[in-house]
Every structure is written in structure tokens, then in C-alpha cells.
Write a structure and sequence with these properties.
alpha+beta; Beta-lactamase Inhibitory Protein, Chain:B, domain 1; 38% strand; membrane; BamE-like
Length: 96
């Protein structure tokens, strides 16, 4: 019986951790063009990866947030959102 109890606790812990993910369609919808990168970080947390470059006074880049098969990619120019993509690992991908 102790084994079943441990398995139950482990399953519950995994469910709670999965529910805490910030990489969700609801948070994706909160991100709008013109937002500052720090505002996006406040919604999604620190990105899993990011890249950037600067040329003639313009800086641009992107950041990716991942959780399992789901990822949110946000493109920035001069620190402001100019585009975003939600990929749920299924056939449909949303881009704005």
C-alpha cells in the first residue's frame, strides 16, 4: 500500500508542476505588439533561449519559451514586440 501512496503523491506533484507552466495559449494571448521585452518576461518568465543582433542603430532578436512540446517565440525590434508564434507541437501553429 505504501507504494501506491508514493505513486499517488508523485502523480499529484507532476500534475501541479504541469499546471504551473507559463507557456500557455492564455499567456500567449496577453503578448501584444509594442510591449517591452521586460513585460513579456513578467508574463512568461525568463526565456529558454534568445538571440539578437544590432545593425545601424537597430537591434532585433527573438526569444523562445518552451514547456514540453509547446513553445512561444517572440520577435523584438529595439526591445519591443513585433511578432509572436505559438507552437503546440500539433499541426496548427499560431503566428501574429
Amino acid at each position: 500500500m505504501k507504494t501506491w501512496a508514493r505513486l499517488g503523491v508523485a502523480a499529484l506533484a507532476l500534475a501541479v508542476l504541469a499546471a504551473c507552466s507559463k507557456v500557455t495559449p492564455a499567456n500567449f494571448d496577453k503578448i501584444n505588439n509594442g510591449m517591452k521585452k521586460q513585460q513579456v518576461v513578467e508574463i512568461l518568465g525568463e526565456p529558454s533561449e534568445s538571440s539578437g543582433a544590432s545593425f545601424l542603430g537597430l537591434s532585433g532578436g527573438s526569444a523562445v519559451w518552451r514547456d514540453g512540446k509547446t513553445s512561444i517565440t517572440v520577435q523584438f525590434i529595439n526591445g519591443e514586440v513585433v511578432g509572436k508564434t505559438l507552437d503546440s507541437g500539433e499541426k496548427g501553429t499560431s503566428a501574429y
